[in-house]
Description:
Layout: E1 2-5, H1 10-22, E2 28-30, H2 41-44, E3 54-56, E4 62-64, H3 66-76, H4 86-115, H5 128-148, H6 162-173, H7 185-195
Parallel strand pairs: 1-2
Antiparallel strand pairs: 1-3, 3-4
Amino acid sequence: MKLYDSGRSPNPRRVRIFLAEKGLSVPLVPVDLGKLEQRDGAYLAVNPRGRTPALELDDGEVITESLAICRYFEELHPEPPLFGTGPLGRARVETWQRRIELELLFPVMHVFRHTHPHMAALENPQVPAWAEANRPRVFDFLAFLDGHLRTRDFVADSFSVADITGPYTIDLMKPARLAVPEELAEVRRWHHLIAERPSAKA
Length: 202
């Protein structure tokens, strides 16, 4: 088994943090996005979509998409549960995972990919107007999230995959030249709380 990884990119990082929370170690195969190695024929033979991460199993089967890889490891190693416990607990995690991914991660990614000079080779053409359209969506969701976090440490019943997706998205805001507003104290507290976990260094 080996995991094709591309460093600080958000989706590979989600998998590494998830594995660290599970106490698991998987050999990493680096894929340098700056050198466009994800578009090289050797990597395209692993994942024809040219994206990271990708998990290659011992029998040659390949699982792509970061959340699918996390779910695979959750099934193999259910403790600690990171997708929730019981029907209602799992539904709560799924709700917040979807909200954070669709309403925070995607808008932040659109701003980053359509404004950062280093992304020009990957996002062709860059559309600055699309980045500007997504900026207010980021702050609208963060305000909503701040209200939710006023009565809890984690977005669902306990630490979950949604608490991985959210804080690493906030980390991605910096290169996108976005910042959590000062008045959103609960989001800031939550981000700091998760950043203090040993897995955040994965």
